[in-house]
Amino acid sequence: MSKIVAQPGILDIALYQGGASHVDGVADVIKLSSNENPAGPSPAAIEALHKSAYGLHRYPSTDHASLRGAIADHHGLDMDRIICGVGSDEVISFLCYAYAGVGDEVIHTEHGFAMYRISALAAGATPVEVAEVDRVVSVDNILAACTKKTKLVFIANPGNPSGTFLSDAEVQRLAEGLPAHVLLVLDGAYAEFVDGFDGGAALIEQRDNVVMTRTFSKLYGLGGLRVGWGYGPKAVIDVLNRLRGPFNLSAPALVAAEAAIKDVEYAKKCAADNARMRSWITTALNDIGVHTDQSFANFVLARFDSAETADDCDAYLKSKGLIVRKTAGYKIANGLRITIGDEAACRRVVHAIAQFLEGRQ
Length: 361
Prior knowledge:
- It is a single chain.
- The protein is of the alpha/beta class.
- It is built from twelve helices and 13 strands.
- It has a seven-stranded mixed beta sheet, with helices on both faces. Strands 9-10-13-12 form a four-stranded antiparallel beta sheet, covered by helices on one side.
- The chain is globular, with a radius of gyration of 21 Å.
């Protein structure tokens, strides 16, 4: 018997299952399972990526200064307090490795992003799940769950897979109520889809116990390049940079992300198109009896009368070439998360769900 044993917690991690992208035997498939931008990346980002091919023999920047500067200019932030990662996932893992370990606790909410629990376990810490209220983060439940062992609290705002949103006042109440030794992490993967929302940047300027993470995978359509970033107190970012590999982001990813964030008009159009179709699909689903919370992201959570109905609907949609995301893994067994696609895709998926429901009557 081998004496080579993994660190405690590692074998408790279930392998992450990404959104499916094909259906056996179905040719005309629309993928609405991974919250991707249906318009794709900015043409400027594509052009920058093409040009970068001529320099693939060169190592990328180690300090990401050009991209950090572009992010800082766009959001009005201090570039010295920005860290870039391989998606926001990597920044989340840095936070767990830096601030949590064996004997420590990391709080996340019951319907939260799977990487919070995974990264906590990978660091040897104990993930602590806290109940939400009607699929909305509960500040009171989080504060009640804090102990001397708590080191990190992760919340997604807007939430995934619910799309619900916690107000600035409630986020501030949470930050103010946490014990002094606890760091609050605001995951803003979908922050760009909330009109006028800064993802928590203003709160970070006021406090030393708040960090936010962001991504280029959603609004900016660069999921295939894996670029994310974080912003927080200088002391925290300094710690995280000590864990970051010197070449964690490729040169093509860096230049494409910089071009994407500078193409403000394209991003505005994508956000406006998303808001328009999100409103339409929410109303359309509710009109046919499928309950849907108001979403502040680029997806909606369609809730059915039972887990069995949701599973059957998912199977029916697949037969029609429509791939959505089952949310049983997020502890919402009766739900299907549907990415906001283009108008044709949104109309097609609502029509198919209506057909499915009519067939069950």
